[in-house]
Design a protein that fits this description.
- The chain is α/β, with parallel strands linked by helices and about 400 residues long.
- The chain folds into two domains: about 180 residues, Rossmann fold (3-Layer(aba) Sandwich), CATH 3.40.50.620; about 150 residues, Argininosuccinate synthetase, chain A, domain 2, CATH 3.90.1260.10.
- The chain contains 14 helices and 14 strands.
- It has a five-stranded parallel sheet with strand order 3-2-1-4-5, with helices on both faces. The protein has a five-stranded antiparallel sheet with strand order 10-9-8-13-14.
- Strand 11 and strand 12 form a beta hairpin.
- The longest helix is centred in the first third of the chain and has 20 residues.
- It is elongated and about 85 Å long.
- The mean pLDDT is about 95.
- The structure holds arginine.
- The site of arginine has 11 residues, from helix 4, strand 6 and strand 7.
Length: about 400
Amino acid sequence: MNNSTADLSGKKVVLAYSGGLDTSVCLKWFLEQGAEPYALYLDLGQGEPADDVEAKALGIGAAGAFVRDAKDEFVNDYIAPAIKANALYGGEYPLFTALGRPLIAKKMVEAAREVGATHIAHGSTGKGNDQVRFDVTTASIAPDLTVVAPVRDWGMNRPEEIAYAEKHGLPFSSDITKESPYSIDANLYGRSIEAGPLEDPNYEPQSDVYRITADPETSPDEPTYVEIGFERGLPVSLDGENLPLLDLLVKLGEKAGDHGVGRIDMIEDRLVGIKSREIYEAPAGVTVVKAHKAIESMTLTKDVIRFKATVEQRYAELTYDGLWFTPLKSALDAFIEDTQKTVSGTVRIKLHKGSATVVGRTATKALYSKDLATYEAGSTFDEAAAAGFITLWGLPARQWSSVNGGIE
Ligand code: ARG
Protein backbone atom coordinates (compact mmCIF):
# COMPACT_ATOMS: atom_id res chain seq x y z
CA MET A 1 0.00 0.00 0.00
CA ASN A 2 1.13 3.52 -0.60
CA ASN A 3 -0.59 6.84 -0.26
CA SER A 4 -0.69 8.92 -3.34
CA THR A 5 -3.04 11.26 -5.09
CA ALA A 6 -0.76 11.34 -8.08
CA ASP A 7 -2.20 10.30 -11.39
CA LEU A 8 -5.60 8.91 -10.63
CA SER A 9 -6.58 9.18 -14.26
CA GLY A 10 -8.53 6.13 -15.39
CA LYS A 11 -8.23 4.54 -11.95
CA LYS A 12 -11.17 2.86 -10.25
CA VAL A 13 -11.54 4.15 -6.70
CA VAL A 14 -13.94 2.98 -3.99
CA LEU A 15 -14.77 5.89 -1.69
CA ALA A 16 -16.29 5.51 1.79
CA TYR A 17 -19.23 7.84 1.22
CA SER A 18 -21.42 9.33 3.94
CA GLY A 19 -23.48 11.65 1.76
CA GLY A 20 -22.10 14.66 3.63
CA LEU A 21 -20.15 17.62 2.32
CA ASP A 22 -16.63 16.21 2.75
CA THR A 23 -17.18 12.98 0.88
CA SER A 24 -19.39 14.62 -1.77
CA VAL A 25 -16.52 17.01 -2.51
CA CYS A 26 -14.17 14.00 -2.60
CA LEU A 27 -16.37 12.29 -5.14
CA LYS A 28 -16.40 15.30 -7.45
CA TRP A 29 -12.69 15.79 -6.96
CA PHE A 30 -12.02 12.20 -8.12
CA LEU A 31 -14.05 12.87 -11.25
CA GLU A 32 -11.96 15.96 -11.89
CA GLN A 33 -8.84 13.83 -11.62
CA GLY A 34 -10.23 11.61 -14.37
CA ALA A 35 -10.76 8.73 -11.96
CA GLU A 36 -13.74 6.37 -11.93
CA PRO A 37 -15.11 6.69 -8.39
CA TYR A 38 -17.54 4.25 -6.74
CA ALA A 39 -19.34 5.29 -3.57
CA LEU A 40 -19.84 2.92 -0.65
CA TYR A 41 -22.27 3.82 2.11
CA LEU A 42 -22.33 1.52 5.13
CA ASP A 43 -25.10 1.36 7.66
CA LEU A 44 -23.52 0.87 11.08
CA GLY A 45 -26.60 2.12 12.86
CA GLN A 46 -25.62 5.80 12.65
CA GLY A 47 -29.28 6.60 12.23
CA GLU A 48 -29.04 8.75 9.11
CA PRO A 49 -31.44 7.85 6.32
CA ALA A 50 -29.57 5.93 3.66
CA ASP A 51 -32.32 6.17 1.04
CA ASP A 52 -31.14 9.08 -1.05
CA VAL A 53 -27.43 8.44 -0.63
CA GLU A 54 -27.27 6.22 -3.69
CA ALA A 55 -29.08 8.77 -5.87
CA LYS A 56 -26.91 11.53 -4.49
CA ALA A 57 -23.68 9.71 -5.33
CA LEU A 58 -24.87 8.79 -8.81
CA GLY A 59 -26.12 12.36 -9.29
CA ILE A 60 -22.64 13.71 -8.60
CA GLY A 61 -21.30 11.28 -11.17
CA ALA A 62 -20.19 8.15 -9.31
CA ALA A 63 -19.63 5.18 -11.60
CA GLY A 64 -21.55 3.09 -9.09
CA ALA A 65 -22.98 3.28 -5.59
CA PHE A 66 -23.19 0.57 -2.96
CA VAL A 67 -25.41 0.90 0.09
CA ARG A 68 -24.84 -1.90 2.57
CA ASP A 69 -26.14 -2.84 5.98
CA ALA A 70 -23.19 -3.98 8.09
CA LYS A 71 -24.84 -3.77 11.51
CA ASP A 72 -24.82 -7.50 12.26
CA GLU A 73 -21.21 -7.90 11.19
CA PHE A 74 -20.28 -4.86 13.26
CA VAL A 75 -21.93 -6.28 16.36
CA ASN A 76 -20.81 -9.88 16.02
CA ASP A 77 -17.25 -9.48 14.75
CA TYR A 78 -16.17 -6.18 16.31
CA ILE A 79 -18.32 -5.16 19.27
CA ALA A 80 -18.69 -8.67 20.71
CA PRO A 81 -14.93 -9.33 21.05
CA ALA A 82 -14.51 -5.83 22.52
CA ILE A 83 -17.13 -6.65 25.18
CA LYS A 84 -15.32 -9.89 26.08
CA ALA A 85 -12.13 -7.81 26.32
CA ASN A 86 -13.77 -5.09 28.46
CA ALA A 87 -12.01 -2.80 25.99
CA LEU A 88 -12.06 0.81 27.21
CA TYR A 89 -9.47 3.27 25.90
CA GLY A 90 -8.11 5.51 28.62
CA GLY A 91 -10.17 3.37 30.99
CA GLU A 92 -13.40 4.99 29.73
CA TYR A 93 -14.08 5.13 25.99
CA PRO A 94 -15.78 1.94 24.68
CA LEU A 95 -14.11 2.47 21.28
CA PHE A 96 -17.23 2.44 19.10
CA THR A 97 -15.69 4.70 16.43
CA ALA A 98 -12.39 2.83 16.46
CA LEU A 99 -14.22 -0.51 16.12
CA GLY A 100 -16.15 0.66 13.07
CA ARG A 101 -13.12 1.71 11.03
CA PRO A 102 -11.57 -1.70 10.31
CA LEU A 103 -15.01 -2.93 9.24
CA ILE A 104 -15.49 0.03 6.88
CA ALA A 105 -12.03 -0.61 5.43
CA LYS A 106 -12.84 -4.31 5.02
CA LYS A 107 -16.05 -3.47 3.18
CA MET A 108 -14.22 -1.00 0.95
CA VAL A 109 -11.72 -3.70 0.08
CA GLU A 110 -14.57 -6.12 -0.74
CA ALA A 111 -16.20 -3.52 -2.99
CA ALA A 112 -12.84 -2.79 -4.61
CA ARG A 113 -12.48 -6.49 -5.45
CA GLU A 114 -16.01 -6.54 -6.93
CA VAL A 115 -15.43 -3.67 -9.31
CA GLY A 116 -11.74 -4.31 -9.87
CA ALA A 117 -10.61 -1.07 -8.22
CA THR A 118 -6.95 -0.42 -7.48
CA HIS A 119 -7.62 2.43 -5.03
CA ILE A 120 -9.76 3.01 -2.01
CA ALA A 121 -10.46 6.37 -0.44
CA HIS A 122 -11.81 7.96 2.73
CA GLY A 123 -12.63 11.47 3.87
CA SER A 124 -10.52 11.56 7.05
CA THR A 125 -8.38 14.54 7.89
CA GLY A 126 -4.68 14.34 8.66
CA LYS A 127 -5.05 15.07 12.37
CA GLY A 128 -7.08 12.19 13.67
CA ASN A 129 -6.92 8.48 14.36
CA ASP A 130 -9.38 7.44 11.69
CA GLN A 131 -6.96 7.96 8.79
CA VAL A 132 -4.51 5.62 10.55
CA ARG A 133 -7.18 2.99 11.08
CA PHE A 134 -8.34 3.03 7.45
CA ASP A 135 -4.84 3.02 6.03
CA VAL A 136 -3.34 0.41 8.35
CA THR A 137 -6.34 -1.91 8.07
CA THR A 138 -6.04 -1.76 4.29
CA ALA A 139 -2.31 -2.44 4.56
CA SER A 140 -3.13 -5.45 6.76
CA ILE A 141 -5.74 -7.07 4.56
CA ALA A 142 -5.09 -5.76 1.04
CA PRO A 143 -1.49 -4.57 0.75
CA ASP A 144 -1.83 -4.31 -3.03
CA LEU A 145 -4.41 -1.50 -2.83
CA THR A 146 -3.55 2.18 -2.70
CA VAL A 147 -5.34 4.39 -0.19
CA VAL A 148 -6.18 7.97 -1.07
CA ALA A 149 -7.28 10.54 1.50
CA PRO A 150 -8.15 13.70 -0.46
CA VAL A 151 -9.23 15.76 2.55
CA ARG A 152 -5.87 15.07 4.18
CA ASP A 153 -3.96 15.93 1.03
CA TRP A 154 -5.75 18.87 -0.54
CA GLY A 155 -5.74 21.16 2.49
CA MET A 156 -9.17 22.70 1.78
CA ASN A 157 -10.88 24.16 4.82
CA ARG A 158 -14.62 24.11 5.39
CA PRO A 159 -15.44 27.41 3.61
CA GLU A 160 -13.28 26.33 0.67
CA GLU A 161 -15.13 23.03 0.49
CA ILE A 162 -18.44 24.90 0.49
CA ALA A 163 -17.20 27.18 -2.29
CA TYR A 164 -16.04 24.12 -4.26
CA ALA A 165 -19.43 22.45 -3.76
CA GLU A 166 -21.25 25.59 -4.90
CA LYS A 167 -19.02 26.00 -7.94
CA HIS A 168 -19.70 22.42 -9.03
CA GLY A 169 -23.38 22.41 -8.12
CA LEU A 170 -23.01 19.63 -5.56
CA PRO A 171 -26.11 18.95 -3.51
CA PHE A 172 -25.57 19.99 0.07
CA SER A 173 -27.81 21.34 2.75
CA SER A 174 -28.15 25.13 2.56
CA ASP A 175 -28.05 25.02 6.36
CA ILE A 176 -24.50 23.73 6.29
CA THR A 177 -22.97 26.99 7.47
CA LYS A 178 -25.49 27.16 10.29
CA GLU A 179 -24.89 23.54 11.19
CA SER A 180 -23.62 22.56 14.61
CA PRO A 181 -19.98 23.46 15.15
CA TYR A 182 -19.24 19.90 16.25
CA SER A 183 -17.55 17.04 14.48
CA ILE A 184 -19.72 14.02 15.12
CA ASP A 185 -19.29 10.34 14.49
CA ALA A 186 -22.05 7.95 15.42
CA ASN A 187 -23.02 4.32 15.13
CA LEU A 188 -25.29 1.89 16.96
CA TYR A 189 -22.82 1.60 19.85
CA GLY A 190 -22.28 5.27 20.57
CA ARG A 191 -21.77 8.85 19.49
CA SER A 192 -18.62 10.96 19.63
CA ILE A 193 -18.56 14.74 19.61
CA GLU A 194 -15.48 16.89 19.08
CA ALA A 195 -14.47 20.40 18.10
CA GLY A 196 -16.21 23.80 18.26
CA PRO A 197 -16.41 25.17 21.80
CA LEU A 198 -15.35 21.77 23.18
CA GLU A 199 -11.78 22.55 22.11
CA ASP A 200 -11.57 24.59 25.29
CA PRO A 201 -11.02 21.78 27.81
CA ASN A 202 -12.42 24.00 30.55
CA TYR A 203 -15.75 24.55 28.74
CA GLU A 204 -18.67 22.55 30.11
CA PRO A 205 -20.55 20.77 27.32
CA GLN A 206 -24.06 22.14 26.94
CA SER A 207 -27.23 20.26 26.11
CA ASP A 208 -26.79 20.78 22.32
CA VAL A 209 -23.91 18.29 22.42
CA TYR A 210 -25.97 15.32 23.55
CA ARG A 211 -28.45 13.35 21.50
CA ILE A 212 -28.79 9.79 22.85
CA THR A 213 -28.45 10.36 26.59
CA ALA A 214 -30.81 12.33 28.81
CA ASP A 215 -29.55 15.05 31.10
CA PRO A 216 -29.16 13.28 34.48
CA GLU A 217 -30.55 16.41 36.13
CA THR A 218 -33.91 15.95 34.43
CA SER A 219 -33.86 12.18 33.90
CA PRO A 220 -36.52 10.17 35.79
CA ASP A 221 -36.47 10.30 39.57
CA GLU A 222 -37.40 6.62 39.71
CA PRO A 223 -34.64 4.15 38.79
CA THR A 224 -35.06 1.44 36.18
CA TYR A 225 -33.65 -2.02 36.88
CA VAL A 226 -32.41 -4.16 34.03
CA GLU A 227 -31.27 -7.76 34.14
CA ILE A 228 -28.73 -8.84 31.57
CA GLY A 229 -28.14 -12.54 30.99
CA PHE A 230 -24.67 -13.60 29.80
CA GLU A 231 -23.47 -16.79 28.15
CA ARG A 232 -19.79 -17.43 27.58
CA GLY A 233 -18.94 -13.77 27.95
CA LEU A 234 -21.70 -12.25 25.82
CA PRO A 235 -25.09 -10.76 26.66
CA VAL A 236 -27.90 -13.02 25.43
CA SER A 237 -30.98 -11.75 27.24
CA LEU A 238 -32.48 -8.56 28.59
CA ASP A 239 -35.02 -8.76 31.40
CA GLY A 240 -35.48 -12.46 30.70
CA GLU A 241 -36.08 -12.04 26.97
CA ASN A 242 -33.58 -13.75 24.67
CA LEU A 243 -32.42 -11.28 22.02
CA PRO A 244 -29.84 -11.15 19.25
CA LEU A 245 -26.90 -9.06 20.44
CA LEU A 246 -27.71 -6.21 18.03
CA ASP A 247 -31.27 -5.83 19.33
CA LEU A 248 -30.13 -6.24 22.91
CA LEU A 249 -27.54 -3.48 22.66
CA VAL A 250 -29.97 -1.09 20.96
CA LYS A 251 -32.63 -1.72 23.62
CA LEU A 252 -30.17 -1.50 26.49
CA GLY A 253 -28.74 1.70 25.02
CA GLU A 254 -32.18 3.29 24.96
CA LYS A 255 -32.96 2.33 28.55
CA ALA A 256 -29.60 3.44 29.88
CA GLY A 257 -29.65 6.61 27.76
CA ASP A 258 -33.04 7.56 29.19
CA HIS A 259 -31.37 7.68 32.62
CA GLY A 260 -28.42 9.72 31.40
CA VAL A 261 -25.98 6.82 31.58
CA GLY A 262 -22.89 6.77 29.35
CA ARG A 263 -21.78 10.39 29.09
CA ILE A 264 -18.01 10.66 29.01
CA ASP A 265 -15.91 13.83 28.93
CA MET A 266 -12.23 13.11 28.58
CA ILE A 267 -8.88 14.34 27.36
CA GLU A 268 -7.64 11.63 25.07
CA ASP A 269 -4.21 10.80 23.68
CA ARG A 270 -4.49 10.42 19.95
CA LEU A 271 -2.17 8.13 18.07
CA VAL A 272 -0.74 11.08 16.15
CA GLY A 273 0.48 12.62 19.41
CA ILE A 274 -2.24 15.23 19.93
CA LYS A 275 -4.24 15.45 23.14
CA SER A 276 -7.86 16.01 22.26
CA ARG A 277 -11.04 16.79 24.16
CA GLU A 278 -13.67 14.17 23.50
CA ILE A 279 -17.28 13.88 24.50
CA TYR A 280 -18.84 10.46 24.14
CA GLU A 281 -22.30 9.09 24.60
CA ALA A 282 -22.11 5.34 25.00
CA PRO A 283 -25.04 4.20 27.14
CA ALA A 284 -24.99 0.58 25.98
CA GLY A 285 -21.21 0.20 26.01
CA VAL A 286 -20.71 1.67 29.46
CA THR A 287 -23.48 -0.49 30.93
CA VAL A 288 -22.57 -3.73 29.19
CA VAL A 289 -18.89 -3.64 30.10
CA LYS A 290 -19.80 -3.04 33.73
CA ALA A 291 -22.20 -5.97 33.64
CA HIS A 292 -19.65 -8.21 31.95
CA LYS A 293 -17.01 -7.40 34.54
CA ALA A 294 -19.53 -8.27 37.24
CA ILE A 295 -19.95 -11.82 35.88
CA GLU A 296 -16.20 -12.19 35.43
CA SER A 297 -15.65 -11.23 39.06
CA MET A 298 -17.89 -14.17 40.03
CA THR A 299 -16.42 -16.74 37.67
CA LEU A 300 -12.74 -16.07 36.93
CA THR A 301 -9.84 -16.74 39.27
CA LYS A 302 -7.91 -13.86 40.81
CA ASP A 303 -4.93 -14.73 38.61
CA VAL A 304 -6.92 -14.67 35.38
CA ILE A 305 -8.64 -11.39 36.30
CA ARG A 306 -5.30 -9.73 37.05
CA PHE A 307 -3.57 -10.99 33.96
CA LYS A 308 -6.58 -10.28 31.76
CA ALA A 309 -6.59 -6.65 32.96
CA THR A 310 -3.20 -6.11 31.31
CA VAL A 311 -4.43 -7.85 28.16
CA GLU A 312 -7.55 -5.66 28.16
CA GLN A 313 -5.55 -2.47 28.23
CA ARG A 314 -3.33 -3.63 25.39
CA TYR A 315 -6.40 -4.77 23.47
CA ALA A 316 -7.98 -1.33 23.80
CA GLU A 317 -4.76 0.30 22.58
CA LEU A 318 -4.47 -2.01 19.57
CA THR A 319 -8.09 -1.27 18.67
CA TYR A 320 -7.60 2.46 19.09
CA ASP A 321 -4.33 2.43 17.16
CA GLY A 322 -5.73 0.77 14.04
CA LEU A 323 -4.06 -2.59 14.66
CA TRP A 324 -7.23 -4.69 14.58
CA PHE A 325 -6.05 -7.11 11.89
CA THR A 326 -2.67 -7.92 13.35
CA PRO A 327 -1.08 -11.06 14.84
CA LEU A 328 -0.94 -9.67 18.39
CA LYS A 329 -4.61 -8.71 18.39
CA SER A 330 -5.52 -12.12 17.01
CA ALA A 331 -3.44 -13.88 19.70
CA LEU A 332 -5.05 -11.78 22.43
CA ASP A 333 -8.48 -12.75 21.07
CA ALA A 334 -7.55 -16.41 21.53
CA PHE A 335 -6.52 -15.79 25.15
CA ILE A 336 -9.68 -13.81 25.89
CA GLU A 337 -11.91 -16.38 24.22
CA ASP A 338 -10.44 -19.09 26.43
CA THR A 339 -11.21 -17.09 29.57
CA GLN A 340 -14.87 -16.67 28.62
CA LYS A 341 -15.90 -20.35 28.72
CA THR A 342 -17.45 -20.06 32.18
CA VAL A 343 -18.54 -16.40 32.06
CA SER A 344 -22.29 -17.07 32.24
CA GLY A 345 -24.96 -15.74 34.55
CA THR A 346 -27.13 -12.73 35.18
CA VAL A 347 -26.42 -9.18 36.34
CA ARG A 348 -28.98 -6.80 37.76
CA ILE A 349 -28.26 -3.16 37.11
CA LYS A 350 -29.88 -0.06 38.50
CA LEU A 351 -30.06 2.83 36.03
CA HIS A 352 -30.52 6.13 37.76
CA LYS A 353 -29.47 9.77 37.32
CA GLY A 354 -26.47 9.12 35.08
CA SER A 355 -25.18 6.00 36.72
CA ALA A 356 -25.43 2.30 36.03
CA THR A 357 -24.82 0.42 39.24
CA VAL A 358 -24.46 -3.32 39.57
CA VAL A 359 -26.78 -4.34 42.40
CA GLY A 360 -26.89 -8.11 41.98
CA ARG A 361 -25.30 -11.00 40.14
CA THR A 362 -25.63 -14.75 39.74
CA ALA A 363 -23.37 -17.15 37.86
CA THR A 364 -23.83 -20.73 36.75
CA LYS A 365 -20.20 -21.59 37.57
CA ALA A 366 -19.73 -19.17 40.44
CA LEU A 367 -16.41 -19.34 42.26
CA TYR A 368 -18.00 -17.15 44.89
CA SER A 369 -19.07 -19.41 47.74
CA LYS A 370 -21.25 -18.11 50.52
CA ASP A 371 -20.19 -21.11 52.64
CA LEU A 372 -16.59 -19.96 52.45
CA ALA A 373 -17.24 -16.23 52.77
CA THR A 374 -19.86 -16.13 55.50
CA TYR A 375 -19.19 -14.60 58.90
CA GLU A 376 -22.11 -16.57 60.21
CA ALA A 377 -22.20 -20.08 61.67
CA GLY A 378 -21.55 -23.00 59.33
CA SER A 379 -18.58 -21.57 57.42
CA THR A 380 -16.49 -24.23 55.70
CA PHE A 381 -13.40 -22.00 55.70
CA ASP A 382 -10.67 -23.36 58.04
CA GLU A 383 -9.70 -20.29 60.06
CA ALA A 384 -7.08 -22.24 62.01
CA ALA A 385 -5.18 -22.79 58.74
CA ALA A 386 -4.99 -19.02 58.26
CA ALA A 387 -2.44 -18.50 61.06
CA GLY A 388 0.17 -20.86 59.55
CA PHE A 389 -0.41 -19.45 56.09
CA ILE A 390 0.18 -15.90 57.33
CA THR A 391 3.43 -16.91 59.09
CA LEU A 392 4.88 -18.15 55.80
CA TRP A 393 3.36 -15.33 53.72
CA GLY A 394 4.99 -12.77 56.01
CA LEU A 395 8.32 -14.60 56.25
CA PRO A 396 10.22 -12.48 53.65
CA ALA A 397 8.95 -9.24 55.23
CA ARG A 398 9.95 -10.41 58.72
CA GLN A 399 13.38 -11.49 57.46
CA TRP A 400 14.00 -8.16 55.71
CA SER A 401 13.05 -6.23 58.78
CA SER A 402 15.26 -8.23 61.16
CA VAL A 403 18.29 -7.82 58.87
CA ASN A 404 17.74 -4.17 57.79
CA GLY A 405 15.65 -2.71 60.55
CA GLY A 406 12.62 -2.07 58.36
CA ILE A 407 11.99 0.27 55.42
CA GLU A 408 13.53 3.75 55.68
N1 ARG B 1 -11.57 10.22 19.21
C1 ARG B 1 -12.37 9.10 18.82
C2 ARG B 1 -11.52 8.05 18.19
O1 ARG B 1 -10.47 8.34 17.70
C3 ARG B 1 -13.54 9.48 17.95
C4 ARG B 1 -13.23 10.16 16.66
C5 ARG B 1 -14.47 10.29 15.88
N2 ARG B 1 -14.42 11.21 14.79
C6 ARG B 1 -15.16 12.34 14.75
N3 ARG B 1 -15.16 12.99 13.66
N4 ARG B 1 -15.84 12.77 15.77
O2 ARG B 1 -11.89 6.90 18.19
